[in-house]
Amino acid sequence: MTTDSDNPTLNNQHPASGIQDPGSRIQIIGIIGQGKMGTSIFYSLLSLPYSLRWIGSPDADIEKLQQSLDKKILRSLKNGVMSQDEYNNLRQRTIISSDLNHVSDCDIVIEAIPEELSIKKQLFAALNRITKSSCILASNSSSINPSQLFSGTDGDDRIIGMHYFFPVQMKEIVELVFTDVTSSEVRENAIYFLLYTNKQILQLDESNSFILNRLFLDFKNETYKIAEQGKVSEEQLDLLIKEHIFSLGVFDFMDGVGIDTMLSSVKNYISHYPHQDYYSGLVNKLQSLVDAGNLGLKSGQGFYRYQDGQKIYPDRDPGSIKQLSSEREREIIEFLRFTYLNTAKRFTMQSGCTIDEMNRAIREYFGLAKGPFE
Amino acid sequence: MAQITENTRNEVQEVVYDFFADECEVDVSEISEQTNIIKDLDGDSLMFLELIEIFKKKYSLEIELKTIGKYAVKNPVETIGQLIDMQMLIIEHENHILEIV
Predict the structure, then answer these.
(1) CA-CA distance, A188 to A158, in Å (whole number)?
(2) Measured distance CA(B3)–CA(B84) in Å, rounded
(3) What CA–CA distances, in Å, run from A257 to A1, A108, A282, A295?
(4) Is the Cα dihedral A36, A41, A45, A50 positive or negative?
(5) The domain A212-366 is classified under which CATH number: 3.90.640.10, 3.40.1280.10, 3.40.50.80, 1.10.1040.50?
(6) What is the pLDDT of residues B38-86, one digit of tens each?
(7) Cis bond before residue A15 (omega within 30° of 0)
């Protein structure tokens, strides 16, 4: 285990972002969770001069995580991406473990465990006990507000939402969610930390949290309503969306994320909405797929069918998708575009974000060349 | 901008093959341009990012990861051959890769 004396002092200015950072405020970072997001957050911070404690679940294969890191940094050394000094320093300042006590000296802990409220609440209760009182407790949850994660009152001023997007190294946008009681010191330090790590912040309060996912949810919901009518297939809709609006289809996306994960996220998002009936068609469809064990790509069937990770079309030739009339196609594209723009406008006005912020965030989120208002 | 020579593709291919052989613990002879990165090698985005860092260093490239991310969303890569082709475009066009029609 490294000690505080091993911690490198941060330079005042980040080489890429140019952000002046006080440096002394955050030097030791804990990352909890060895899944896709936890791993991506860990590796995104590895090249910066922080001390890192990466904590896996009790059943995680810690040795495998360590071996994987060792192999990567050794290869970086071999390929000249990293110097011998950087290699030695990185080994000294990184701990991988399943023992949560390793985060006791952290300045910020970022949680990235599965989206289950009860498990997250247990974790945050433990973190509140283990960590020092100045440590920021951040959740990478994509659907649970930070104030839901904590049942006590002592320490709730240091819990925030810090929602990264995958892959973290490639996506600069981070949704930063503060609660009504988040302290000003925590707010300031969290903002400094994200800017220093070269992220663009979309700062939101809890009533407008996870705005990008909510925006996409409304688009998915409208698209599903068209599919539900039975006159246009999911595949035809995905093709039109990929060609004219986003770079990914909504049914492809839901299958890729996992139908069960989508269902629990949608339920979390709409839990406080006054008009939940608006989403009932999509929720019922996701529920029926989950009940049938059709969880998307990972189970071999969701909205589509898959074999060895590839989409298959058992009932027809893959190239023989039924063509829509050009007039019908144009109507659907216009309707979907209108839905996208209208939803973007509504969320922008609700959130208090500027048009520039939303354009930038949506460009990043969907990998688009232009935002909705450009 | 990096100088592309006849040898560049061979260099890129060698680095890519060696990388996946090492990372995925397979013999380099088992890898070909047709090898599917996810299906055959259980590859992931971390491997892709590490390869980009290697090429950025090797060819002194000026390109942001988010730019590559945007390009990759529009032009997904499945096989080793497609990955080599994308690396060649990155080396050739750097931050202007999104301007390729």
Answers:
(1) 11
(2) 16
(3) 36, 28, 15, 9
(4) negative
(5) 1.10.1040.50
(6) 888 888 888 888 999 899 988 889 888 888 888 887 788 889 999 999 9
(7) no
DSSP for residue A169 = T
Q: Does the predicted interface ipTM exceed a cut of 0.95?
A: no
What residue spans define the domains of chain A? 8-208, 212-366
A342 shares contact with chain B (CB less than 8 Å): no
Q: Does position B14 have pLDDT exceeding 60, yes or no?
A: yes
CATH of B8-96, one of 3.40.50.2000, 3.30.70.260, 1.10.1200.10, 3.40.50.1820: 1.10.1200.10
Chains A & B: contacts with CB separation below 8 Å:
58
Q: A-chain residues within 8 Å CB-CB of B65?
A: 169-170
Chain B residues whose C-beta is within 8 A of a chain A C-beta are 15, 19, 22-23, 38-39, 45-46, 49-50, 53-54, 57-58, 65-66, 68-70, 73-74, 98
Dist. CA A128–CA A150, nearest whole Å: 9
Q: Which residues of chain A have pLDDT under 70?
A: 1-24, 152-153, 314-322
**What is the b/e burial string over A249-279, where b = at least 16 CB atoms within 10 angstroms of the residue's CB?**
bbbbbbbebbbbbbbbbbebbbeeeeeeeeb
Output the six-digit token pair for B26: 């397979």
CB A53, CB A97: distance < 8 Å: yes
